[in-house]
Amino acid sequence: MSKHFTYWNSFASVVPLYLDLFPGAFQCCSVRLERLAYTGALMAIRRSSDNALKDFYPDLNGKLSMTSEDGLGTSLATWIGANNGLIYAFYDQTGNGNHWLQATIARQPKIVNLGSLLVDANGLAAPTLSGASLNRFQLAGFGGHAVVDTDMVISTTDSVFVTLVGGATHYSFAAQSGSSSTLTSQYYGSPTLFVNGTQPTQVTRNDIYLASIGNNKVLTHQGANTTGLGWSGSNPNFGGYGSGVEMAGSLQFNASFASNQSANRAARHAYLMSRYQ
Asked: Is residue 212 part of a domain?
């Protein structure tokens, strides 16, 4: 449903962005513009008052804000009014069409609350999952890969956290406070996780939550998994894999590769820290 327009400013026109610096991702969604050649919208947002859907593009600073427009001159602030804004689509900027979607109204993450953009401590838009009602994104492009290497900018104050899930028996990364399970990855090999540049010790899901997620905003890097089994499962999603096992928190950036990216992990980390932390 994206209506294309040309984004330009003097800074973005000369400074390479994530997908320009680190090509080859099969999927990338962000509240910021992350590819200079990308001219599509960042999100499709649903207005709570009438369920109308509209695409919104990067503002003049290359990010989602209340001054972001629909490509026809209408700002998000004007269009949303005092209503809530829910995310129907978090668009893939790679050009591969692997958008993160949620068509079910009750499950859509929120981006605007009563006319105010949900933001982090730095004022950057923060798509928010409620931790209830199967609130989550449905993923595309993740099936069939023997390797998935992912960068995420996430935050949570929740005690239950599950991400990149393909179903109760297929997942590539999971963290849950209080869990004694050693199955941090099912049918996908053991992930290598970096948090703000440091590789924590992982034994159980609880170890991942306590040492890696905690109660603060974190930047996580999932190292490549080299098992021959492709990551699959029904209805892959971000945010949970069953009723009562849902994340409360936000996701501002995700990019995934189907090849080992360990050689540039430090550079990716430094870039994302400078842009999102």
From this structure: yes
How many whole angstroms separate alpha carbon 271 and alpha carbon 269? 5
**Burial of 201 per CB tally in 10 Å (0-12, 13-18, 19+):** exposed
Q: What CATH number does residue 201 fall under?
A: 2.60.120
Mean pLDDT per 10-residue interval, the chain, length 277 residues: 46 80 96 97 98 98 98 97 98 97 94 97 93 84 77 80 63 74 71 76 78 64 57 67 76 90 88 88
With respect to residue 189, please indicate whether it lies within any of the assigned structural domains.
yes
The predicted model scores a pTM of 0.89
Can you tell me the distance from the alpha carbon of 187 to that of 179, in angstroms, rounded to the nearest whole number? 19
234's tokens = 């029904």
Q: For residue 217, which of 175, 168, 273, 172 has the smallest C-alpha distance?
A: 273
Q: Which amino acid belongs to residue 157?
A: T
pLDDT at 18: 97
Residue 59's Cα: distance from chain center in Å? 19
Domains contained in the chain, number = 1
In a domain? residue 147: yes
φ, ψ (nearest 5 deg) of residue 273: -60, -40
Which structural domain range is residue 68 located in?
Answer: 21-276
Burial of 2-23, coded b for 16+ CB within 10 Å and e otherwise, reads: beebebeeeebeeeebbbeebe
Contact (CB, 8 A) for 169 and 233: yes
